[in-house]
Amino acid sequence: MKRDKATVPRQDEDPGAMKKRIIVLASGRGSNFQAILDALSKGSIQGTCVRLISDVPGCYATDRAKYSGVPVTVVDYRSFPSKETYEKALLFAMQECRPDLVVLAGYMRILGRDIVRSFHGKIMNIHPALLPSFPGLHAQRQAIGYGVKVAGCTVHFVDEMMDSGPIILQKCVPVLPDDDEDLLSERILHEEHRCYPYAVKLFCDGRLKIEGRIVRVL
Ligand code: GRF
Question: What predicted TM-score, i.e. pTM, was given to this entire model?
């Protein structure tokens, strides 16, 4: 049967075709994931979240995905005999989604080399400190303990080392005299929820160019 040319949009005329395919990896409460979903639903990011992948069955991020109609894949770390087999299954699940961008939003494992290489320049992470200070776990606690007067968050591309890839955006907040880890974390998180969707938007608009360690915002 002949298709009616007038009613079938061509690929390059379909606004949906221009949208980047985003997948999110999360292990916990998923508040950054939610901030990105909210920006997507407002139309401020030229993208679609095609899947949430989680290593933790039942984490709150998976509930958020379900409320928003985002398909979920759980690759339960504990059900694999080794890190290698887990990473293989995770890589397969990621590849199946054909993502333009992989967003780590509270994904609590270090991605293996094969995954990082497969999506080179396409994986982003957010860290609750001004990198390269305080990489790793409990960054806010490290900042308080060190006595810094300014803390913040960093959105960066992911390379093969922990919290070390090229920096996209940073935002600072003051550390106040009576701060404890929770108060500081809350102040930083507020900025994370603004920074991360903005970094994703820049990526989806094709405005991020990686030159070695430097990320140019075009
Ligand atoms: C955030 O503080 C983020 O910077 C860090 O993990 C935390 C995740 O929080 N990578 P949420 O799950 O997005 O609420």
Answer: 0.91
